[in-house]
Specification:
Mean pLDDT of chain A: 84
Number of strands of chain A: 0
Shape of chain A: globular
Number of strands of chain B: 0
Distance between the termini of chain A: 16 Å
Structural class of chain A: mainly alpha
Largest sheet of chain B: none
Largest sheet of chain A: none
Helix content of chain A: over 70%
Number of helices of chain B: 2
Number of domains of chain A: 1
Radius of gyration of chain A: 21 Å
Shape of chain B: elongated
Order of helices and strands of chain B: HH
Structural class of chain B: mainly alpha
Mean pLDDT of chain B: 81
Number of helices of chain A: 12
Oligomer: heterodimer
């Protein structure tokens, strides 16, 4: 920032921006740590990590080029840390699910085994987001990854969660926990429905976990099971996305952020683990409303700030 | 339905190869599109496997 101010006089004199003021892919250590915590928390809390990654640097006026090779390499490591945290947290589930999945293929027959049904539900839910993600992600990001649309989508994200909770209360006004469907009682069609809902998160500002949890609630799951399905579904998606972007770590400019990336990846993993541990307990007895109101407030405030150019 | 599963698997493998070699569309090589095509091909083979096991029984 100080460097930019010193070059401001040059800019005024010449009319051209100084190279020191142009957005750079290099994040400072403090920025890297903030982004790592933000990623770890917002990837799993239903508040849209992508939306926050766009809004926060803009709100804090960070001079960061989010399209640069070094920044993208940094983001890959953060996602990898988050995915590993999810795998570690659900390690026993994943071992059982993968075993049951392989066994059912070898057997060539479906059974009523809970883990096997969960495995196939994960396959059914991952197909829509996999196909739509690969086909649409880059074009959607190009269109909407700027602060004003993100603010509006964040607002919409809150509204979607409130609507989901309202529809659920309307459908089942006096339902006790015992009457909800269990995750393994969903049909593959339900899995595809949740998968399509999760694909809404391609829009920056719409939360992956939020839309998947709402879809699970509309399919009669308890909050706890809907959240568990959402986190299990998120794991292969985040892992695949980070592994596919892995070559960016070896891009010529990527080494610039190596220390920030490594420390940030660990920090993102630790915060993601803490987040998923908190949320699985939280959803035993609570709903999406606080996150919905946060998104509505954050979206509205950001929209006003950016639309009125209070923050350029 | 068994032949359909095999035909679809073969089609997805071909699409993957075309994506990886950059012959599918003018925009060039698409690594991710190719990987998704291969995954879909594998799922078609799994579908074939389930149908085969059914007829064996």
């Amino acid at each position: 920032m100080r460097a930019c101010l010193t070059h401001l006089a040059d800019f005024r004199a010449s009319g051209k921006p100084s190279p020191a003021c142009e957005p750079t892919g290099v994040v400072t250590f403090v920025q890297a740590m903030l982004l790592a915590v933000l990623q770890g928390v917002s990837e799993l809390f239903p508040v849209s990590s992508l939306g926050h990654t766009v809004l926060l640097p803009a709100l804090l006026r960070w001079n960061v080029d989010e399209g640069s090779e070094s920044f993208l390499a940094f983001v890959v490591v953060l996602h990898l840390g988050t995915a590993l945290a999810l795998i570690v947290f659900y390690r026993n589930d994943w071992i059982a699910i993968i075993r049951a999945f392989i066994a059912s293929i070898v057997r060539g027959r479906f059974t009523d085994d809970r883990d096997e049904r969960t495995a196939w539900l994960l396959v059914a839910g991952t197909i829509p987001v996999g196909i739509l993600g690969v086909l649409l992600e880059s074009s959607v990001k190009k269109l909407f990854a700027s602060p004003i649309p993100v603010s509006l989508f964040l607002f919409a994200n809150g509204f979607i969660m409130l609507l989901g909770e309202w529809l659920r209360r309307r459908q089942h006004p006096e339902k006790s926990t015992k009457q909800y469907r269990r995750l393994d009682q969903l049909t593959p069609r339900d899995g595809v429905f949740v998968g399509f809902a999760q694909s809404l998160a391609l829009l920056p500002g719409i939360s992956r976990s939020g839309s998947a949890i709402v879809a699970g609630l509309l399919r009669d799951l308890h909050h706890e099971d809907a959240a568990r399905y959402s986190f299990l579904l998120a794991t292969p998606v985040i892992l695949a996305a980070s592994l596919l972007e892995f070559p960016k770590l070896f891009a010529p400019d990527a080494h610039v952020v190596l220390i920030q990336a490594v420390v940030g990846g660990v920090l993102a993993g630790v915060t993601a683990y803490a987040s998923v541990a908190f949320l699985t307990r939280y959803f035993r007895h609570n709903d999406l409303s606080p996150f919905a109101w946060y998104c509505i407030a954050a979206g509205a405030v950001s929209f006003i700030l950016f639309a009125t150019k209070a923050i350029a | 339905m068994k032949p359909l599963a095999l035909i679809l698997a073969a089609v997805f493998v071909i699409i993957a190869i075309l994506y990886w070699t950059g012959h599918f569309i003018p925009a060039g090589v698409h690594l991710k599109h190719g990987i998704v095509s291969i995954i879909l091909a594998l799922l078609c083979l799994v579908w074939y496997r389930f149908q085969s096991a059914e007829t064996t029984r």
